Amino acid sequence: MARRPRIVRTLPGLRRALEPYRDAGDTVALVPTMGALHAGHLALVRLARRRADRVVVSIFVNPAQFAPNEDFGTYPRSWGADIKALTETKVDLIWAPSAQVMYPEGFATRIAPEGPAKAGLEDKFRPHFFGGVATVVGKLFAQCRPDIALFGQKDYQQLRVVTQLAKDLDLAVKVIGVPTLREKDGLALSSRNAYLTPGERANAPLLYRVLKATAARIKNGEKIADALDVGRRQIDLAGFILDYLEARHAETLAPIASIADGPVRLLVAAKIGRTRLIDNIGI
Fold first, then answer.
1. Helices marked H in the chain — which ranges?
2. Catalytic choice (38, 41, 128, 249)
3. Are 268 and 235 a contacting pair, CB within 8 Å?
């Protein structure tokens, strides 16, 4: 039986737990999560295991990235299953602070990211979101001092924001984006998939099919604007409430008019029933 990871909930405890790794010269990988772990998270952990001597997984449902009308209170939580999965994947340390530890009384400093955080994608619909993400990830990097940190590409704008954060603040951590893990029918794995009804779950993979079809049209020479218009109509007709389907520069997330302006990333966000789904692919 695999050894259960050490679980740490206080900053002094975290420093004590990390000190032997540093003394031994071990490299440390961090996988930040909000819990409710699925196979996509565990793929990040397994890659971290291959890339570093020690693996730290943080579990913290960050209230700073939820607006009052969002699902902080009902966000999926599965502590027991998460610990079992992290034990099986041979994680060394679980950093599980409370909100009071992460944001103690008098906390008054927040990171306000720009650049890819102001691309008019997720930030247009969730203007609070990337400030909360940047602040908590900045704290996690400072607390854990990892050599590498792994993030899934499904949350692509978040990946670009975190990458820019580490670069701009001269943080000694390499941010690694890991390809999206999908169900057999193409649906990107997400903790929020648990919200889908059976009918919604059956319809949800359409977003990925539209992304692939739109990418194929663009690669075959169709104008980006025309290909996007076709994709948007398909999503609307399937009963989704579309927030955006966009083609952006894969690094800056700036709008582009031609594949020659690339590399290109297609990004989509849409709501089906009460569940908001996001996805993206490269061209």
1. 11-23, 39-51, 79-88, 99-102, 122-125, 129-144, 156-168, 198-203, 206-219, 224-237
2. 41
3. yes
- On whether the CB atoms of residues 58 and 31 are closer than 8 A, the answer is yes
Structure tokens at 230: 């076709």
**For helices 129-144 and 11-23, angle between their N-to-C axes, nearest 10 degrees:** 50
C-alpha 192/C-alpha 206 separation (Å) is 17
- Does 1 have pLDDT greater than 70? no
- Is residue 249 flagged as an active site residue? no
Overall fold of domain 6-178: Rossmann fold (3.40.50)
Same fold, 6-178 and 191-282: no
Note the pLDDT tens digit of each residue in 192-235.
999 999 999 999 999 999 999 999 999 999 999 999 999 999 99
Q: What is the pLDDT of residues 73-85, one digit of tens each?
A: 777 788 999 999 9
Q: Is the pLDDT of residue 72 over 80?
A: no
How does pLDDT run across 185-194, given as a tens digit for each residue? 999 999 899 9
The domains of the chain are located at 6-178, 191-282
Q: Alpha carbon 92 to chain centroid distance?
A: 22
Give me 247's structure tokens: 């083609």
Give 191-282's CATH code, choosing from 3.30.1300.10, 3.40.50.150, 3.40.50.11720, 3.40.50.300.
Answer: 3.30.1300.10
Please write the tens of the pLDDT for every residue from 5-17: 999 999 999 999 9
CA-based nearest residue to 129, from 155, 103, 150: 155
Q: Which residue has the tokens 């389907």?
A: 245
